[in-house]
């Protein structure tokens, strides 16, 4: 009988993997090498460190798949050496992270009077997340710049700028993997020099990995009277995070930027398909087997003939779908190690715009239709 081990934080893991064999769940940090002795396939999230010592007795293991975009919790060279295939769920939660950043911008519009018509957003990393964000900013008519040297070198046809140009943008948002070494290493990509140069009217968002920012330098900069505004979803040493940072950052969340219902379930779906492929069997389950359809929402633009929605309407609509400020308030009730883990484990249901069906009084301008489509909404018109 094929044996599959899956991390207990993988939503619907039992329902998916038990169709393929004997499926057993485990708690990420407590997984021991002895448990993997007769396991064929291992499915993890980022909270299982796949190290050479964990693999020491995994003689039958054919594949490790992670239901996450990031892969820095897996020792990929060690897996290669051991002849164990590895896969990841690139893109599974790109929309969720993009919507997280959009929620930051809409909150800054409401609470900090950020003029969204005049800002430029600097996106560092133009992969799945950076691209999903760029698409949404385009729909919102918010200017943006992209920086991604690896993609630029690989011949991606989009227009890219250098990191220095990004550092001059009104909003800087980080969407790179944590890569320790090599030409495009990202550890402390935001180093002390770049952090020291941040201006008080700049907004920095880190929803990729804590290691990408020099946290000590950030703490120092945030302690200065002309500090920039900072939003942090990720930290250097999760879940035991540097508590001194928290009163100094505007909004903070416990690594949940990608935790929409769809973002997590898409990760499971991809991991399940990786195991199916490795077993050479066809996949029979889809996300529709598990996703409830949210109730249709009425939405009436204040000026239906305008070329685009006004900022008040957009902020109200988008923050009704996901309001990061609520997550910030919830997290600040307990930012300890236990609080961090508890909020991640019991995260409230958060659906992506694409799951929502808007009922809009007809007629509306083509510009508004394009905007709502670009933001991912489904809709129909009512008379
Ligand atoms: N907070 C969360 O919940 C959450 C959710 C999803 C992803 N993430 C993190 O965000 C990262 C990005 O996710 P993704 O799905 O877009 O990954 P991706 O691999 O699709 O894209 C990453 C992009 O970063 C680029 N890049 C690499 N090094 C760079 C550098 N030095 N400068 C600029 N660009 C560089 C790559 O070329 C690639 O295009 C993941 O690796 C993960 O660590 C976090
Ligand atoms: O890399 C990713 O996909 C995200 O950071 C993901 O949300 C992290 O995975 P988790 O810690 O939720 O298992």
UniProtKB/TrEMBL annotation:
<feature type="domain" description="D-isomer specific 2-hydroxyacid dehydrogenase NAD-binding">
    <location>
        <begin position="112"/>
        <end position="257"/>
    </location>
</feature>
<keyword id="KW-0963">Cytoplasm</keyword>
<dbReference type="Pfam" id="PF11890">
    <property type="entry name" value="DUF3410"/>
</dbReference>
<dbReference type="GO" id="GO:0030267">
    <property type="term" value="F:glyoxylate reductase (NADPH) activity"/>
</dbReference>
<feature type="binding site">
    <location>
        <position position="233"/>
    </location>
    <ligand>
        <name>NAD(+)</name>
    </ligand>
</feature>
<dbReference type="InterPro" id="IPR024531">
    <property type="entry name" value="Erythronate-4-P_DHase_dimer"/>
</dbReference>
<protein>
    <recommendedName>
        <fullName>Erythronate-4-phosphate dehydrogenase</fullName>
        <ecNumber>1.1.1.290</ecNumber>
    </recommendedName>
</protein>
<dbReference type="GO" id="GO:0033711">
    <property type="term" value="F:4-phosphoerythronate dehydrogenase activity"/>
</dbReference>
<feature type="binding site">
    <location>
        <position position="258"/>
    </location>
    <ligand>
        <name>NAD(+)</name>
    </ligand>
</feature>
<dbReference type="InterPro" id="IPR006140">
    <property type="entry name" value="D-isomer_DH_NAD-bd"/>
</dbReference>
<dbReference type="InterPro" id="IPR006139">
    <property type="entry name" value="D-isomer_2_OHA_DH_cat_dom"/>
</dbReference>
<dbReference type="GO" id="GO:0005829">
    <property type="term" value="C:cytosol"/>
</dbReference>
<comment type="pathway">
    <text>Cofactor biosynthesis; pyridoxine 5'-phosphate biosynthesis; pyridoxine 5'-phosphate from D-erythrose 4-phosphate: step 2/5.</text>
</comment>
<keyword id="KW-0664">Pyridoxine biosynthesis</keyword>
<dbReference type="GO" id="GO:0046983">
    <property type="term" value="F:protein dimerization activity"/>
</dbReference>
<feature type="active site">
    <location>
        <position position="238"/>
    </location>
</feature>
<dbReference type="InterPro" id="IPR038251">
    <property type="entry name" value="PdxB_dimer_sf"/>
</dbReference>
<dbReference type="Pfam" id="PF02826">
    <property type="entry name" value="2-Hacid_dh_C"/>
</dbReference>
<keyword id="KW-0520">NAD</keyword>
<keyword id="KW-0560">Oxidoreductase</keyword>
<dbReference type="GO" id="GO:0016618">
    <property type="term" value="F:hydroxypyruvate reductase [NAD(P)H] activity"/>
</dbReference>
<dbReference type="InterPro" id="IPR020921">
    <property type="entry name" value="Erythronate-4-P_DHase"/>
</dbReference>
<dbReference type="GO" id="GO:0051287">
    <property type="term" value="F:NAD binding"/>
</dbReference>
<feature type="domain" description="Erythronate-4-phosphate dehydrogenase dimerisation">
    <location>
        <begin position="306"/>
        <end position="360"/>
    </location>
</feature>
<dbReference type="InterPro" id="IPR036291">
    <property type="entry name" value="NAD(P)-bd_dom_sf"/>
</dbReference>
<feature type="active site">
    <location>
        <position position="209"/>
    </location>
</feature>
<dbReference type="InterPro" id="IPR050223">
    <property type="entry name" value="D-isomer_2-hydroxyacid_DH"/>
</dbReference>
<feature type="binding site">
    <location>
        <position position="148"/>
    </location>
    <ligand>
        <name>NAD(+)</name>
    </ligand>
</feature>
<feature type="domain" description="D-isomer specific 2-hydroxyacid dehydrogenase catalytic">
    <location>
        <begin position="34"/>
        <end position="280"/>
    </location>
</feature>
<comment type="similarity">
    <text>Belongs to the D-isomer specific 2-hydroxyacid dehydrogenase family. PdxB subfamily.</text>
</comment>
<feature type="active site" description="Proton donor">
    <location>
        <position position="255"/>
    </location>
</feature>
<dbReference type="InterPro" id="IPR029753">
    <property type="entry name" value="D-isomer_DH_CS"/>
</dbReference>
<dbReference type="Pfam" id="PF00389">
    <property type="entry name" value="2-Hacid_dh"/>
</dbReference>
<dbReference type="InterPro" id="IPR029752">
    <property type="entry name" value="D-isomer_DH_CS1"/>
</dbReference>
<feature type="binding site">
    <location>
        <position position="68"/>
    </location>
    <ligand>
        <name>substrate</name>
    </ligand>
</feature>
<comment type="subunit">
    <text>Homodimer.</text>
</comment>
<feature type="binding site">
    <location>
        <position position="46"/>
    </location>
    <ligand>
        <name>substrate</name>
    </ligand>
</feature>
<dbReference type="GO" id="GO:0008615">
    <property type="term" value="P:pyridoxine biosynthetic process"/>
</dbReference>
<comment type="function">
    <text>Catalyzes the oxidation of erythronate-4-phosphate to 3-hydroxy-2-oxo-4-phosphonooxybutanoate.</text>
</comment>
